[in-house]
Amino acid sequence: QVQLVESGGGLVQPGGSLRLSCAASRSIFSIDRMGWFRQVPGKQRELIATITSGGTTNYAVSMKDRFTISRDNAKNTVYLQMNTLKPEDTAVYYCWGWVLNNNYWGQGTQVTVSS
């Protein structure tokens, strides 16, 4: 089993920034692919970005301008830097991992962008 624990969510004003963290229970070298998704009410969960064990990143086209995924192997942690946040970014953000042909999800962390 792989446990993923998100942190860093909360309330932020429009135009502000947040960095989300996802701590994995095992070395992220052993996790083939990790990423971030989000889900808003009434919509399907959508991809933000992924990063492979080799460091290759992929972004949803609409996310690349403001969001950046990165990792710290020593801390077994993947990050999502979010800049120039908009009210439309309000959602539950989920950490995701793929290993041994299985999907793993964090519990989600709420991000609310509001004045």
Task: Give a structural overview.
- By secondary structure, this protein is mainly beta.
- It has strands at residues 4-7, 10-12, 18-24, 33-39, 46-52, 57-59, 67-72, 77-82, 91-99, 102-105, 109-113.
SSE diagram, text form:
Blueprint: E1 4-7, E2 10-12, E3 18-24, E4 33-39, E5 46-52, E6 57-59, E7 67-72, E8 77-82, E9 91-99, E10 102-105, E11 109-113
Parallel strand pairs: 2-11
Antiparallel strand pairs: 1-3, 3-8, 4-5, 4-9, 5-6, 7-8, 9-10, 9-11
How many strands in all? 11
Radius of gyration, in angstroms, nearest whole number: 13 Å
Number of helical segments?
Answer: 0
Q: Helix amount, in percent?
A: under 10%
The largest β sheet comes out as: 7 strands, mixed
Order of helices and strands: EEEEEEEEEEE
Identify the notable features of this structure and list them briefly:
4-stranded antiparallel sheet; single chain; 11 strands; 115 residues; mainly beta; 0% helix; 7-stranded mixed sheet
Task: Produce a short descriptive summary.
The chain is mostly beta strands. The protein contains no helices and 11 strands.
